[in-house]
TrEMBL record:
It is found in: Cell inner membrane. InterPro entries: PqiA-like (IPR007498), PqiA-PqiB_transport (IPR051800). PANTHER family: INTERMEMBRANE TRANSPORT PROTEIN PQIA, INTERMEMBRANE TRANSPORT PROTEIN PQIB-RELATED. Keywords: Cell inner membrane, Cell membrane, Membrane, Transmembrane, Transmembrane helix. This is Paraquat-inducible protein A. The chain crosses the membrane at residues 50-69, 97-123, 144-164, 176-193.
Length: 218
């Protein structure tokens, strides 16, 4: 049974902008249809993914510790963090809004941090473990990334609703800015990861083999 050739065997590259299969034998490496630069792989994929994810993790701390909004009722103001806002909505019976904020602000970023870290570590260890499942995990991270701005949208909607009341007012606080940065950097991290690296794994660990070779030579 003959194995069909892959794109690299035919010297073809898929344009990330328009999706056209382009010939890489000629210079410059640009898409014939849209003129976008062509890359066989995402450049410095692991380095950029680690950098974006660590930056998101740093911003995630103040995003949860600092208040995201200030609510004033009859002249009395109170700051609310993400978690205190969830509890407040839950106590007032708005469990649906509380659930949306909790999933979008606490659960989704946490899942993305764990999933991207797992992908990075297994790729760097040249692991053959559950490659198909890890590919599905990457696609899942991409999908949930688009829903990460739900918390910011909810705050904006709540603010617009409260504005209609004469005795109430609501204002954003610095925490919402840090949370927005978390969303942006986690999305950049997922976009920088090249899932094809999962299938490049051979099960060998070059660094371990080098240590063994040095030990035997001495």
């Amino acid at each position: 049974m003959t194995t069909p050739p892959v794109a690299s065997d035919l010297n073809l590259c898929l344009c990330h902008t328009c999706g056209m299969a382009c010939d890489m034998t000629h210079e410059p490496h640009e898409c014939e249809r849209c003129g976008a630069p062509l890359h066989r792989r995402k450049t410095n994929s692991l380095t950029r993914t680690w950098a974006y994810m660590l930056a998101a993790l740093v911003f995630y701390i103040p995003a949860n510790l600092l208040p995201v909004m200030n609510t004033k009722m009859v002249g009395n103001g109170a700051d609310s963090t993400i978690m205190s806002g969830v509890l407040e909505f839950w106590q007032h019976g708005a469990w649906d809004i509380a659930l949306i904020i909790f999933i979008a602000s606490i659960a989704v970023p946490g899942i993305k941090f764990v999933a991207i870290t797992l992908l990075l570590v297994t790729v760097q260890r040249d692991s053959l473990w559950a490659r198909q499942e890890r590919s599905k995990l990457y696609r899942f991270v991409e999908v949930i990334g688009y829903w990460s701005m739900l918390d910011v949208i909810v705050v904006a909607l709540v603010a617009s609703l409260v504005k209609f009341q004469a005795l109430a007012d609501i204002e954003p606080r610095p925490g919402i800015l840090f949370f927005g940065l978390v969303v942006v950097f986690t999305m950049l991290s997922a976009m920088s990861f090249d899932p094809r690296l999962i299938w490049d794994a051979t099960g060998e660990h070059p660094h371990i083999e080098e240590v063994k070779d040095e030990a035997t030579s001495h």
